[in-house]
Amino acid sequence: MTTHLNTLDGQASARRHFRYFDYVMAAFVAILLLSNLIGAAKLATLGGYTFGAGIMFFPISYVLGDVLTEVYGYANARRCVWAGFAALLFMAFMSWVVVALPPAAGWGGQAAYESVFGSTWRIVAASVIAFWAGEFVNSFVLAKMKIWTAGKMLWTRTIGSTVFGQAIDSLLFYPIAFLGTWTTQQVVTVMVTNWLLKVLWEALLTPVTYAVVGWLKRREGVEVFDQGTDFSPFAKADAV
């Protein structure tokens, strides 16, 4: 699959214009926001197991994070993480403003609005911090593993990076959001269970990841290896 592709290092990929990068970034940010906005407030039960509905779709953002790093390199994935981070902050700010506005006389939807969009500051902070750290760990591990595996065995990188990225995400989110409100046992149980479910989702979506990565690489015509890349989350594009 890769014999006809041009090999680029991290510096060259950061400065190259790609045909489909903007679309993948838009999908990444959209799924991130929608899974937090629509799915986060609802608890669902299937087969006797209760879970946050957002878990059905949020892991897709991690799949797209894998695609971004695998196809476009760490530096371009870093741009997407920061874009998602900024979008989450704006969503939290907008939700707070809209909920806080005095409702019009005769409008009876305030209680429902507060129930869906009135997340506590702890949950908002936990979501933003966990996403930021987890996504950067995910991209870092995948980029490094791609060098170690010489670009082979994509499944080891997508699943391996998710194991570490989602572990950091869960280790940050659940204690920050719920420790002291839930018992320690509840926090640990939900944290481990949701981490396992997210990794399982990644594994199940491996064929989809292969198809998307292969399609994008063929159309972009490149294979990116992050050799010489500055992996700091704060590195500028001209210093990757």
Automatic annotation (TrEMBL):
Membrane topology annotation: Multi-pass membrane protein
Protein's cellular compartments: Cell inner membrane
Keywords: Cell inner membrane, Cell membrane, Membrane, Transmembrane, Transmembrane helix, Transport
Major subcellular location class: membrane
Pfam families, alphabetized: Vut_1 (PF02592)
Transmembrane segments: 20-40, 46-68, 80-101, 121-142, 163-183, 195-216
Keyword Transport included in the entry's annotation: yes
Cited InterPro entries: YhhQ
Family membership noted in the UniProt record: Belongs to the vitamin uptake transporter (VUT/ECF) (TC 2.A.88) family. Q precursor transporter subfamily.
NCBIfam families: queuosine precursor transporter
Job of this protein: Involved in the import of queuosine (Q) precursors, required for Q precursor salvage.
Protein name: Probable queuosine precursor transporter
Lineage: Bacteria, Pseudomonadati, Pseudomonadota, Alphaproteobacteria, Sphingomonadales
